[in-house]
Amino acid sequence: MIHYSVLPMDVIFQGMETYEPKFLEIDQGGVKMQIEPIGGFQARIVRLYSCNPQDYLNDRYAPGTIISYSPVVEATLPI
């Protein structure tokens, strides 16, 4: 890939080494997917883990789509 720009390379790629995305795997509507939380109760779909070809044709599950989800917190009781 060639990137032409008047900006210096260190400005363009600033922070690239420290970027660590936080991915989660959830089941949304019976479709298992990988998401990246973006704040609040919203997340961006990264990829699908489905064997059903119809899930890939559904616009609601396209990568990059913003969805709303409710994180589930599991509590463990001390024994």
Secondary structure: elements and pairs:
Elements: H1 9-12, E1 24-28, E2 31-39, E3 42-48, H2 53-57, E4 66-68
Antiparallel strand pairs: 1-2, 2-3, 3-4
Shape: flat
| Biggest sheet character | 4 strands, antiparallel
SS class: mainly beta
Strand elements, count: 4
- Which strand order does the major sheet show? 1-2-3-4
Which terms would index this structure?
11% helix, mainly beta, 2 helices, 79 residues, 4-stranded antiparallel β-sheet
In short:
The chain is 11% helix and 30% strand.
Folded structure, characterized:
This protein has helices at residues 9-12, 53-57, and strands at residues 24-28, 31-39, 42-48, 66-68. With 79 residues, it is mainly β. A four-stranded antiparallel sheet has the order 1-2-3-4, with no helix packed on it. It is flat. The model has no long low-confidence stretch (mean pLDDT 87).
